[in-house]
Design goal:
elongated, Alpha-Beta Plaits, Structural Genomics Hypothetical 15.5 Kd Protein In mrcA-pckA Intergenic Region, Chain A, single chain, 3 domains, nine-stranded mixed beta sheet, alpha+beta, about 240 residues
Length: about 240
Amino acid sequence: MRLDKLIAQMQLGTRSQVKEYIRNGSITVNGQVVKKPEYKVAEQSDTVCFMGRALCYQEFAYYMLHKPSGVVTATKDRQDKTVMDLLQGAAGKDLFPVGRLDKDTEGLLLITNDGALSHSLLSPKKHVEKTYYAECEGTLSAEGITMLEQGVDIGDEKPTLPARVCRVKQSGNTYSLELSITEGRFHQVKRMIGAVGGKVTYLKRISFGGLVLDETLEKGAWRALRQEEVEQLAGRN
C-alpha cells in the first residue's frame, strides 16, 4: 500500500496534510525517514511511525457510541448533527453506523467500516437480537405482554416476530420495560407498544447482537470495541 494512503486511513489528516508530514520528515518506516508519499509499505509487517510514535494499521475499525437524543443516524445531513459528527478523531476510513436509531432514541450504536459484518448483523435471516429499555404511558396487561411475546400486528403485511419482555414496572398510568426484538422494522418498538395500547415516551437501546452498552460512556461519547467484543459480534455471522 502507498505510504500516504495508509497514513490517511489512520485519520492523521487529509491526503494533502499527510503528504506534507511525509515530505517534512515526520514519517519513518522501519526506523528510516521516508519522504516519498508513493513509497510502498507492507501494512502488516513494516513499522511506520509518526513523529516517533508507532502507528498500528487495522483494516477495519469498530466503535461503540452512546447516541444522544436529537442526533440523526446518518453519515451526512444538511440540517441536523449526525452520529458521525460525534466521532471526530476516530481512526478508520469510510466509517458508517450499523443500522439506525430514531432521532429521539438514545443508546447503543455500532460504528464501523466492516461492510461484511454490518450486512450480517442487519440481515433479516440472521434474527440478531436488539434490546431496548422503554418508558411508556398507559397500562401493560398480562394479555399485552403475551401479545408482544407471540408477535403483534403493527399494520404491516405480517405480524412481528415473537419478542422477549422483561423487567416490567407499572407505576400508575406509566410503565417501563425491556423489550428484545429480532427485526428492524420502521419505528418497530414504538408501533409494538402502540399495538398493545401504550405510547413510548423514552426509548434507549441497551444491547445489539450481544454487545451491551457501556454505561460508563456519557451520552455522545464513544470508545473502540475491545477485541472480545469484536469477536463476539463476528461470531454471530
